[in-house]
Amino acid sequence: MGIYKTELHRTPAVLANNGGHWEGLDDLEIATCGWAPWFHEERLHGELGYLTPSEVEENYRVKSQTKVA
Question: Among candidates 17, 44, 41, which has minimal Cα distance to 31?
Fold first, then answer.
């Protein structure tokens, strides 16, 4: 929740890219729908070898299936 608040609610650049400052809950929910895919599918993460969280999850899934098979 802390990352969400910082990224989507308090960071001026993110606010500008997502149509903030919000006028109500509906605006915030719409912005969340745009932010969540970016956070998981596009954001490169230094602690994950500059891969996206989705790439790391996929790599883990493939490795896990290979070991089981």
Answer: 17
Within 13 Å and on the Cβ side, how many CA atoms surround 61? 6
Tokens 């149509």 label which residue? 19
Alpha-carbon distance of 6 to 13, in angstroms, equals 11
What pTM, to 2 d.p., does this model score? 0.57
What would the pLDDT profile of 40-68 be if each residue is shown by its tens digit? 898 899 999 999 999 999 999 999 987 66
Q: What are phi and psi of 51, to 5 degrees?
A: -110, 165
Three-state DSSP state, 11: coil
